[in-house]
Structures are given as C-alpha cells and as structure tokens.
Amino acid sequence: MAGYKPRVISLTKRQGHTFGFYLRVEHAEEGHLIRCLEMGGPAELAGMKDGDRILRVNGEFVDELSHSEVVEMVRNSGPTVTFHILDEDSYVQAKAQGVNLSHPQSTPVANGASKQDLKPKLCYLVKSSSGYGFSIRSEKGAPGLFMTEVMKGSVADRAGVNVKDRLLEVNGESVEGATHEEVVEKIKLSGGSIMFLLVDEETDRHYQNKKIGAWLATAKHLPHKPCIIEITKGTDGFGFLLNEDTTQKCHFLKDISRGSPAEREGVKEMDRLVAVDGKEVDGCNHGQVVDMIRQSGNKCCFLVVDKDTDQMYKKGKVSPMLFLEETRDSSSPPSYTEALNLPAPVRPTTPVQARKEELKPKLCRMEKTAAGYGFHLNGIQGISGQFIKEVISGGAADRAGLEDDDMVVEVNGVNVEQSSHEEVVEMIRSSGSSLEMLLAKRSVYDQLKAKGVSITRLLLGETSYVQVHTADTPEEEERHEEEARPESPTEQERERTKSSSSQDSLDERL
User: Which of 250, 196, 187, 201 is nearest to 222 (CA)?
Assistant: First the structure.
C-alpha cells in the first residue's frame, strides 16, 4: 500500500462519556466515515478529522464489514479503542486505484510518526457452549503448533485468533517444543477460559532467531482494558481508602465516597491499583504507595483494573503495565496545543457560523450568598493564568454557569490574564456582594490563543451575560440556569440532528 499510511489513534473515554464522534456510512460514499467531531472531545484531541475513514478497529480490518458490525466492535472495546484511520483524500485515491487497504505492508503511523507494528499478540478466549471454535496442528518441516479451522464468528475469531498463527504460550507458559497432545491437555485443563500468546507469519519471520515473550506483545485484542484515570484532589481528598492485600503485595481502592473525585472519574469499589503516575506498585508496601500518591500533589494518574481485567491478565501471567506501556509508546493522544496545530478538517460537518459561535467566552454575574460564591480559584506557581476549580453544585457560581477548568479572562471588567494569583483573589474579595467574570472553557481559550485572537467581550456578539438572582427571585432562577450552559445541546436537539440526516445514511454516536 505504498504511499498510503494509516494513522494509529488510541482513544480513551471516561465513564458516562463518548469518544466524541459519529461513525457513519453515507450514500455514494465508500467506507466508515468519521463525522460530527465533538470540539475538545477525545477524538478531536487525538487528531481525528472530519471525513477520515476507519480501516481497522483494535487491529482488525473493518473496511469491508457492515456499519452495525463496526459499531458493535467499538462498543465492545470498553473505555479504550485503537483505530487505524486514513484521511479522506488518500482513501478516495486508494479506492480509485484499486489499492488493497488491508495489505500487511501498509505502514501505520502514530500521530504522524511511522511505527513498527510487528508484535506477538495476547488473545483471551472464554469458552461458549459450542467451544472455542479452533483447532491446532503441526506442519511438516516447521517447528511449533499452528492455529487452523478458526470458525468465523467463533470465540477464537472474535478474540483475534487467525489461521496460521503460531502458538507460543498457553496461560503464560511456553509451549514451544511441546507435543500436540501436551498442548491439547493444557487447553483442556484450563477450564472455561484461556490466554494464548500467538504470532502471525510476518511477525514470526521478523523475530526469527530471537526470543519472543509476552513482554513484547500487544494487548489490543484483549476484551478487558485497564483504566488510566486522572484524578484531581477535592477538598476532602481523592475520595477512597487504599487497602493492601499483604499476602499478594497488591493494593485495592475501596470505600469510594459518593460524589468524590474518584467516583466522578470512574473508580469502582475494589479496583486493583496497578500503577501511580506510571510507576508500578506491585511489591510496594502500603506506606510506600501512600507516599507515591502524596508526592503527586493535587493531581494523580492511576492505572487500575477491575476484577475481570485482573483475572484475565493473571491468567496469562502478564502485568497490566503492558497496556500502559503500549498506550504510551505507540499512540498517545497529542496535547491541546499539538491538536490545534493539526490540519483543519477537509470539510466541516456543521455550518461555519455555528462553529464560530462556539469559540466564545462567557460573561457570568453572580450574587454572593452566605456560603460565598461557591468556587475555588486556582493558579500554577510561576505561570500566568487563573482557572476555576471545585464549583459547588447549586452554589452561586454553578448557577451562573461557571465550570471546572474555565479560564478567567476578566474580573469586573479588568483583564487578569497576566495578573498574579494574589492580585486576582484580592479583586474578587474587594468586589463586594456581586461579581462579574469573563471566562472561557479551557478548550475554547486554547484555540482562540492559538489563532492569536484577543479574548474580550466583543466576542460575545449579541449574547448577553447570565444573570443569577438571589433566593429572593426563585421563579427566574431555573430559566437562567438553562442559559448558563449554551455550549451543550439538549438531548432533544441531538435527536433532531440525528433525525435530520438523509435516509441514505447511517450514523452512530461513539
């Protein structure tokens, strides 16, 4: 597939959220199209563009599959999914030239850089009533045992097993040099599930005369994914207790507080903690792990696994760190700044005017209550710029439309972008019982700055500020709360958007 290089993009979504795009098939258009990218969503930040075509989902070629099959594959991936995608122009040209887009010599790239994608693979199979759906055989003159008779749609097929894959390990134990009978017996004794380490023909040739083990493998075919969770400490901490299993030297998160940062980011009761800020904690004692978390300050990144994911990795005698390392090395999404520097979409999916209207700050006014304004002002030492944190639900700031991570541009008509934290705090304190702030969502702020646009009230156009009344005017409070968040379309609006599309197309929000 010379000249056509798919990009490899890995997306992770938070619980209750989407990957931030629609997957569509359209009349007179070939392929599975990326549409309606959510501004600031995982897909846009990772570099997906309107009109991109999805070629592979978790390594499996999908260009010839139906829309519903691809949607199902993405949904079954859980919170993390890896795509091979091709830009619209390249896809159309490749199709016109009759290029085989599934050709193994295609060179994946991760965020614009060519990468080596030849790895053994871990495949986890859970037996169904009809078995696993494969056979193994030996080949005359070739060492090892090979997969054969992989039934389409079977457990093995869905797990990523292919005909002619060579079997290296069963449940973390090498079977190279084992007889056919010995391997069959191992599979029978495995119970209702099994973990294979396999290598396809091309990868096998690549590693010829080299030792191959699970430490080299890709985990992209595994059905259960560890979760990478970034948590910002609240006023009462992260909102969980750390519990050590002294017999196994591993650590669990328990007693998750309702409404805490941990719960909001998707931590579940008795999730096992694998790593803190990229450092594995297995083998560390309780005090050492507590110190690692404390040293992280107010923001910490955890790698956690639930019970099913933990059991799966243990079945293969492999650490979930493999997932973290693969995500880091091959397909880490770009930062906000990197994403802003990527080429613009080939064609917008919404009217240009609508997109421009989204790049606006918001002017919020609030009246102080007995509990204050109900937010924290945060800043990073040595770096200009203040942002909003810990907006109290139902408080004055919440009703005025302030949201966590909003960037503060003006306080009572004075630009504070270059002011120190202490100066801004003093301005707020001296404002009396009412406060007016010009703010911008962090994603909007970053994009406007990247374009060299000064953020002022002039960008508001005809949009007026959100006036939040005190408890003396409850009748108007609900109406103004709705005005406070114009950026998010209602469910009814989303339904109208979907239903207005042509009957010659299918789309699915992912």
Answer: 196
CA separation for the pair 475, 482 (Å, rounded): 13
Return the pLDDT at 345. Answer: 37
Residue 207's Cβ-count burial label (10 Å; 0-12, 13-18, 19+) is middle
This prediction has a pTM of: 0.48
Q: Set out the domains of the chain in order of their start, with CATH numbers.
A: 7-111 (2.30.42.10), 116-224+307-331 (2.30.42.10), 228-305 (2.30.42.10), 352-468 (2.30.42.10)
In 3D space, the residue among 384, 382, 376, 367 whose CA is nearest the CA of residue 425 turns out to be 376
Helix or strand or coil: residue 276?
A: strand
Which pLDDT tens digit goes with each residue over 210-236?
Answer: 888 898 899 999 999 999 998 998 888
What pLDDT was estimated at residue 468? 35
CA dist., res. 19 & res. 41, Å (int) = 7
Confidence of residue 444 (pLDDT cuts 50, 70, 90): confident
Q: Which residues contact 255 (CB under 8 A, 6 or more apart)?
A: 240, 241, 269
Which pLDDT score is estimated for 329?
57
Cα distances from 97 to residues 27, 164, 305, in angstroms, run 21, 30, 45
Q: How far apart are CA 154 and CA 89, in angstroms?
A: 36
Yes or no: say if 318 and 122 are a contact pair by the CB < 8 Å rule.
yes
Task: Give me the pLDDT at residue 337, please.
Answer: 30
> Sign (positive/negative) of CA torsion 407, 411, 413, 417?
negative
- Cα–Cα separations (whole angstroms), residue 406 to 74, 345, 376, 440: 31, 26, 11, 6
Instruction: Measure Cα distances from 310 to 73, 161, 271, 273 in Å.
Output: 22, 21, 9, 10
**Cβ-count burial of 178 within 10 angstroms (0-12 exposed, 13-18 middle, 19+ buried)?**
middle
Give me the count of residues in the chain: 510
Strands 250-254 and 271-276: antiparallel
Three-class DSSP labels, 319-379: CCHHHHHHHHHHHCCCCHHHHHCCCCCCCCCCCHHHHHHHCCCEEEEEECECCECCCEEEE
Report H helices in 153-257.
155-158, 180-189, 201-206
Residue 79 pLDDT level (bands cut at 50, 70, 90)? confident
Cα distances (angstroms) measured from residue 119 to each of 82, 162, 184, 198, 207 = 15, 14, 25, 9, 9
Query: pLDDT digits over 137-161, tens only?
Result: 988 777 899 999 999 989 999 999 9
**Digit-coded pLDDT (tens) for 127-140:** 999 999 999 998 87
CB–CB of 306/258 below 8 Å?
Answer: no
CA angle 478, 481, 486 (to 5 degrees): 135
